[in-house]
Amino acid sequence: MITFKFSSLLWFFSLIILMGHSPPHTTQLKGNTWAEVQQRKTGVITIAYINAPGLSFRNIQGRLDGVCFDIIKSFIDYVKRTKGISLKAQVMPQYELFSHFMDEVKTAQGGVFGLGNITITDERKQVYNFTYPFINNLSFVISHSSVPTLVNLGSIATQFKGMTAYTVKGTTNEKIILGIKQKYMPNLAIAYLPTSGAVLAKVAADNRSFTSLDFNYYAEALRYNASVKRHPVGDRREEDFGIIMPKSSDWAPIWNEFLNTNRFTKSPEYRKILLKHLGPSAVRALEQYR
Prior knowledge:
Layout: E1 2-5, H1 34-40, E2 42-49, E3 57-58, E4 64-65, H2 67-83, E5 86-91, H3 98-106, E6 112-115, H4 122-125, E7 128-130, E8 135-144, H5 156-159, E9 164-167, H6 172-183, E10 189-192, H7 196-205, E11 209-214, H8 215-223, E12 228-241, E13 244-246, H9 252-261, H10 268-278, H11 280-288
Helix pairs in contact: 10-11
């Protein structure tokens, strides 16, 4: 566990690359409650994250980067500026397994925040608190670039005949693939990989595969000229992304104030963050479906 102090003038999350799988945690994730930091005017929050291109990741210099981490910075600055409260953030090593990450945040206590491409669903609301949505989520049907473009989803059984769908268990993208199988391709073979990054790499290398992935993975593929194709007839406006907290957390109201009442997600600062990490093509797509 590494501890960092945030300010508007000095913004370092990490200079050390933490490689490999998440080490097993022997203690429960904890952070100060909002009630505690209001009383003390200082406190510690804990950040857990999964790798999500453009949203939460380590850049080539090994520093934590992405839309979510920039939002955390702006949130801490907002709390300091408007409430006079100084926060420190301790950032956990990256979680490799989505299910492990979700379980760790679910059982955490106090000011613990989970970052990544986490969709806000009614099912998850039963066991987590969410911030106000910080971004729209779009899911795309993606294949190798050599695959002919789908005319419509009704033709997918013919055009994608014999192809394998790759996905990650427990994600909203898996639900989309299962929906395609149920409605259009009853004989579709589905293979599971541990991460969405692995799914994207597989599809970019295999012209007999396809998937459904969140827009940020497609944006990342464009950045690196990966051999993938988006099939626009498969675009779906999905549930929004939010930052997750334990169900018992009392931090949701201040997050709502920052993101919604304060209209951070409508601000020029926010749009600049999106352009910086996602690129103009992805931002245009997000604005198109807003």
